[in-house]
Amino acid sequence: MEDLRPITDWLPISKKEMRKRDWEELDVIIISGDAYVDHPAFGTAVIARIIESEGLRVGIVPQPNWRDNLQDFQKLGKPRLFFGVTAGCMDSMVNHYTAGKRKRSSDSYTPGGEAGFRPDYAVTVYTQILKKLFPDVPVLIGGIEASLRRVTHYDYWKDELMPSILESSGADLLVYGMGEQPLRNIIDLLKKGVPFESLKTVPQTSVIIPEGEELPKNKRWTDVELASHQACLADKKTYSSNFKVVEQESNKLNARRILQKIGEKTLLINPPYKTMTEKEMDTTFDLPYTRLPHPKYKTRGPIPAYDMIKFSVNMHRGCFGGCSFCTISAHQGKFIASRSETSIMKEVEEVTKMPDFKGYISDLGGPSANMYKMKGIDEAICERCVSPSCIHPVICSNLDTSHKPMTELYKKVDAHPLIKKAFVGSGIRYDLLTKGYNKNGDDSIDEYMDQLVTRHISGRLKVAPEHTAENTLKIMRKPSFKHFKEFKKNYDAVNKKHGLDQPLIPYFISSHPGTTEEDMAELAAETKELGFKLEQVQDFTPTPMTVATEIYYSGYHPYTLQKVQTAISRDDKNDQNIFFFWYKDENKKKITERLKAMKRPDLIEVLVEDQQKPTHKSIDNTPKWLKERREKEAKYRKFKK
Q: Which domain holds residue 579?
């Protein structure tokens, strides 16, 4: 079924489309590294629709050509208020390169999956072009690339420390995190006649103050100063110490303003807004999206990222896991912002009316699927908290972890007459579903598991234990692997009870800071004992604004300033990664050599010599090598104390 909407249902991306709306000039022009998909899962569409809802005329220039005469940057004219610049839904370097720094051959946010339609360091490239073409027009940058590069940061692809992206790009203002609240504030001030250059005290924004200019004042804020960019360049330990401040202030309900010197200039990072309310979240998701790619892409092929999510519904934002390798809480925050049931059911209804909908919702979830409506019981306690995670090293006693609101919502979606199945495709936090770890857990866990397993799994369930070694899991801010085994036992039991066979697919990471080659060998043996041949695996990729990246670059943990062993060279990384694939014949010789060097003949027997089909064993049937390793780790922990 073809969609026959008029072109004016989309925001304009050409002069011709502007004229269809009788517009000769735009108030705001957004430059984006992604193709234009008018869907609430795409940040460019969300920001553009918010600007439109504020009564302004907004246009989008998706994936402009930066190699030619730059006509794409000029085709919509000069905006009255400002340019907005985003690399898109991903950091452009993560989008372009693998963990091994190999160039990717495809781009999921481009029609046909074609690569090469955005530059490396897209925010900086786009902004510098705009500053050259329109030197008198302010440039506001946002999205994940700008957000996570707002302060001195390590860039894995250049292998060097870089200053705030405001400095390298020349942008006038940066919005970090989810941009709705600061953007509405900015627009409101501009409507009132406040000059753009005076927007220096808007929460959740960042700006550079020139040498000799007085710092703007806000009597409600106190300041904290980081080590300067130059001090970070001079000493890795000093650089690492900055991150603890940045992470804690980014996740406080009442944060301080961050200052950092860049030469003689001063970088200001204003405190973030409080988490969006249910009403504010509903306002964002209830905007008039077409939920479709712009018609101009029809002949260029499908957009893979859109095809993946077009029949999905996002219930909430944020993640309180605080995993040390993940950027979700750094960008979306650790406090959960949930939508109302009414808004979610309204979107479900819209999905059922989309072209080609066959009755299946691909994902009913969020960054972590089972955090909907979870929050602190007493907000006063949350206001004093500086912990980056609400569930590590233990689940906070002040955290309401009831799964009942999710279960009830799943049932309502299930009952919709046009929905055959609503799958939960987002990652499940299995630790929240494990009563041995979740001491706040109640009977809602069992009810949720029954509903999830019987109605919302598309053949197999993905979870992310990430590792098996206690020392690595501690650095990752993940629970002990024994809790994953408890979850697996419960999950298997629920499947058996209902006569189902739905495999569990675990995700694991190699080369994470704190991981040794021996840890990886033991991971391989332990997961083999559980019956897994691992598929969903990855090599650690350092990305800005994570604890793990700070350790990777500096060698120090930012919270303890203690040295942490990390695999850096390509050979060391490959030596760790190969243990994921113990079952491949071509790896037998190399694995045998590495295990002999470790003096681990016991693991040679498990991984190489015993190549029979792995069997599921009781979690009480612990092999001798594993018992010995646990005894060794227990002695180590006792020694550390």
A: 504-641
